[in-house]
Design goal:
Length: about 425
């Protein structure tokens, strides 16, 4: 049973029929899915959710499908990690990591949005799928399309990390590098979608695709014992994820599944691509596009589609947005790995580095319950790292003790 009433404009509220369209015909604003929340409230309880498998589909009444999902059936259910060692290192009382670096099947939160979008593509009878991507979405569309039997057309900027390109090619997708940045790629995908019957997940299926991100927020609340956190720090590229986590907490409160709470939302960007953070700091919701120049390529969207809405969520919640340099985000990747054993990609490094900056500025309360969104795996962005060069030793005990100074430690312990 579906609880979807149709689509509606996020700006003027004009309703639209349920179709693969993304733009309001009245005001050209973006469309979003409209649900029958009264009907959902009558059937969806904490107990009902708890009785279901630990995947994103345990919240299926709040997702925009007409039928049972057909793609990404194992996606979701990633851990919320209490990060006490990291909390001590950065001076926070209670800190959690929502870790989608271990998401199925491609180690990023994009698997959530793609599971919804490709299931919806099948309901709309599309025979091919595609996307414009800065990497993680490319991996996920390619993998899930392969598993579902869809031909896939993946368009990417031609300067993407090799690991993300190979992590897309391996699934047999049609991978097309485009000379230019993400915004150039996205414009081309919009033109292709207007001429060819391809379901571009973040173009003509965008209203449905974005809904998958809400499950990131549902899981945080459920894993905190059906409570929203005091603060959440989220990486921003197009700005959609932070708005969908905000929507998720709001929906759970509306349905009586959590108590209403003023969670503060904090957005993280790299200084080399910071249009949303710059707008927040300037006190405006108007986004000034930038030309990306950062190692955090998964966040390198110079003209973010949801930037206007992201700034609204951040400022209206009492949060803030910051940006950090490439060296700062790389240091944060190392800190996270060394304290919690979590290897994040550059987006996660950006998020942790911004968290430290916000704490230093006094904008983030260290005595509050904070969740940091880790959205992708570090194995995808190895090119961003510079680590100490290793030296080989001979296979001799003395060589090992010389290299590690363990002999001195053992002697000191015996004395």
């Amino acid at each position: 049973m579906s609880f979807v009433k149709g689509l509606k404009c996020r700006e003027c509220g004009t309703p639209a029929p349920l179709a693969p369209v993304a733009i309001c015909e009245e005001c050209f604003g973006p469309l979003e899915v409209d649900y029958d929340y009264d009907a959902i409230r009558a059937v969806l309880t904490r107990g009902e959710i708890a009785s279901r498998p630990k995947t994103m589909w345990r919240y299926r009444e709040l997702l925009p499908l007409e039928n049972e999902p057909t793609v990404g059936l194992q996606t979701g259910g990633t851990p919320l990690i209490r990060a006490d060692r990291l909390a001590k290192a950065i001076g926070v009382r209670e800190l959690y990591l929502k870790n989608d670096a271990v998401q199925h099947p491609t180690l990023s939160f994009k698997d959530r949005v793609v599971a919804v979008a490709l299931s919806k593509a099948r309901e709309f009878n599309f025979e091919a799928v595609g996307c414009a991507s800065t990497g993680n979405l490319a991996n996920s569309v390619a993998a899930n399309a392969a598993a579902a039997g869809f031909p896939a057309y993946i368009l990417i900027p031609d300067n993407l990390e090799k690991s993300k390109v190979w992590g897309t090619q391996i699934y047999g997708a049609n991978v097309i590098p485009v000379r230019g940045n993400y915004d150039d790629v996205n414009r081309l995908c919009s033109e292709i979608a207007g001429r060819h019957p391809i379901a571009f997940v973040n173009v003509n299926l965008r209203p449905f695709y974005g809904e998958g991100s809400k499950t990131f927020g549902y899981e945080i609340a459920e894993q905190l014992g059906w409570q929203a956190p005091d603060a959440v720090v989220v990486p921003m590229a197009g700005g959609s994820l932070i708005t969908k986590i905000h929507k998720a907490f709001g929906e759970l409160a509306r349905l009586g599944l959590i108590e209403e709470k003023q969670t503060r939302f904090y957005g993280a960007q790299a200084t080399g691509c910071n249009p949303i953070a710059a707008a927040v700091k300037a006190g405006t919701r108007d986004i000034r596009p930038v030309k990306p120049n950062t190692v955090a390529k998964s966040l390198a969207i110079g003209n973010p589609a949801d930037g206007y809405f992201a700034t609204g969520v951040i400022t209206q919640s009492g949060g803030w947005s910051e940006d950090v340099s490439d060296p700062e985000l790389v240091d944060a990747i190392k800190l996270l790995a060394e304290t919690e054993g979590v290897f994040t990609e550059t987006a996660g490094g950006t998020t942790l580095a911004v968290t430290r900056k916000l704490l230093a500025q006094g904008r983030l309360n260290p005595d509050s319950r904070i969740v940091i969104a880790i959205t992708g795996n570090g194995l995808k962005t190895l090119e961003a790292l510079t680590l100490t060069k290793l030296e080989s030793i001979e296979p001799k005990l003395g060589e090992f003790e010389r290299a590690t100074s363990l002999r001195r430690v053992a002697a000191a312990t015996a004395a």
